[in-house]
Amino acid sequence: MTYSLKARSRIYQLSAYRESVTNAALSLVAPAGMYSGGDILPDLFSGNSIFNAGNYQSVGYMAAVTQSLGEHVSATLMYGSMGAITAQDRELVSDSPDELRSMIRSGRKQAAITRVTATSPWTGTHMIASYQWTDSRRWAMPGHLYSTQPVAPLPG
Predict the structure, then answer these.
(1) 62 within 8 A of 80, measured Cβ to Cβ
(2) Torsion angle of alpha carbons 133, 135, 141, 144, nearest 10°?
(3) What is the tens place of the pLDDT at every residue in 125-150?
(4) What is the number of other CB atoms lying within 10 angstroms of the CB of residue 145?
(5) Distance between CA atoms of residues 29 and 37, nearest Å
(6) Which end of the chain is flanked by fewer CB atoms within 10 Å, N or C?
């Protein structure tokens, strides 16, 4: 659900969502043969593996304001709270994928994003510079495929 309001050279946006993730996929670096079966698949592009982390549900919100700085430049500031996943800080005692899966927890994280976009009036080249801050480095936030906002927190 998104609400957007344009007032002169500014655009204000509020959005909220609820998501249910089934078979969450995490990139994993593990010794060969550590996990088998349908819990881990090779990532052909990176040489790592994809781990089935299980299911989780989340809700979140984002608020953004975009200011036009002339005909070819705009700046956006966004803040929100969203679902994220992390792993408990303890050592694995077996090579069971269920043990690893039991260490993964869902929770809430905050993020602030700033973005400046510019378009060259002569060549039409688009340039984007952005920065994302989150309140912890031990969490992974999924991308939201169905977000209607022009700027969104990136997975990581």
Answers:
(1) yes
(2) -60
(3) 999 999 988 877 777 766 665 555 55
(4) 7
(5) 16
(6) N
